[in-house]
Amino acid sequence: MAKSTPGDIKAILRQFNIDGADESDRHIEAIKPVTDSLISFRFNKRRYCVLYDEVAEDDLDYLNEQVAGEADTEGSFLKNPNESFLTYGLPFKGKTVYLYLAQADKKRLDIVLAEKYPESSRSTWQKHIKAGRVNVNGELASSPKQEVTASDIISVDLPEQTDYSAKSFPIVHLDDNVIIINKPVGVLTHAKGALSDEFTVADFFRRYTSVGLDTNRPGIIHRLDRDTSGVLAGVRTEVAAKLLSRQFADRKVKKTYMAVLSGHLKQKEATIELPIDRNPSAPSTFRVDPKGKMAITRYKVLAENDKESLVELRPVTGRTHQLRVHMAYLGAPIKGDRVYGREADRLYLHAQKLEITIPSGDRRIFEAPLPNEFTAGFETLA
């Protein structure tokens, strides 16, 4: 392998009239012998290669072949600024050297990291960068949009992943195709993006499925909000994923929720047909809007006390926040709804039943028991 000291490299740079070559050797970094005659290094944040060759005789095609695949980006050989019979070659310590400068091919930092570490998505790297876990040339990366070149030294310092192997969720049903759980309140169905510092349903499903293992949603075909508890289905095979996804899309899945409302409904049983759209003044929320998509909810009041109602809710459509928006619009928001009502000890919304056809062909109803706090305060149920 070719060898060269920082002093040799500085002397070569000086002879090529590279600005700053007379400064300290500390500006020369990442010296790496590539082949028997080629050395790669960085100088003032730019990537160079020194080629020792006695037979090239300024043949550029030949010279480019020597650095092909070793320079990472396109570049060019620098001309010898001294009077010489060679245009590019420069005599140095009894040998002929050629100096190659790689072009500064700039890319966004998050794109470079996603290409280098494809096991993590670009959105994951954006979060790592914003969390201060990425350095460029020894300095904290300023932004995912920061531009870097092949000559920049990028280092990452990622935290150790939390061991969730001892955690689990109550399993309602498990067979070769599907897994059904009773999701506790306060648990995410899947991470919002690629990073999560908490145990999600998707993390649990990962142990049981072969579907979507390269994503942050393994086994997930539908979801419940963090604050909603109850029955949640996951798939273990691609066959099950296609079957159940089609059922959700075709509205052949029947879902039954139980909720405690803050207030009373005028009609004890009815069907709500009110379109829902995103609220432009608060984009993370939704509202009843004539311009929105139609949302249909059937409800039945099961019990009442002075201030609250226990109701059964059966959504026909599956719009985001549908049940919460519909109940709030009728003047009786779901108890504990921090967005559309008032905060309480929890959101009193529970997915009690899920009726689906599983790959065996059986039409099944899976049920998650109603938490005791939902019936407390109601003397009799209808």
Oligomer: single chain
CATH topology of the largest domain: Pseudouridine synthase
Number of domains: 3
Tell me the overall shape. elongated
Write down the secondary-structure element order: HEEEHEEEEHHEEEEEEHEHEEEEEEHEE
> Could you name the CATH class of the largest domain?
Alpha Beta
Task: Describe, in short, the structure shown.
With 382 residues, the protein is α+β, with helices and mostly antiparallel strands. It has seven helices and 22 strands.
Protein architecture, described:
- The protein is an alpha+beta fold and 382 residues long.
- The chain folds into three domains: 6-102, 2-Layer Sandwich (Phosphorylase Kinase, domain 1); 107-156, RNA-binding S4 domain (Structural Genomics Hypothetical 15.5 Kd Protein In mrcA-pckA Intergenic Region, Chain A, Roll); 171-374, Pseudouridine synthase (2-Layer Sandwich).
- It contains seven helices and 22 strands.
- Strands 12, 13, 14, 15, 16, 19, 20, 21 and 22 form a nine-stranded mixed beta sheet that branches.
- Helix 3 (109-116) crosses helix 4.
- The chain starts with 5 loop residues before the first helix and ends in a 15-residue tail after the last strand.
- The model has no long low-confidence stretch (mean pLDDT 88).
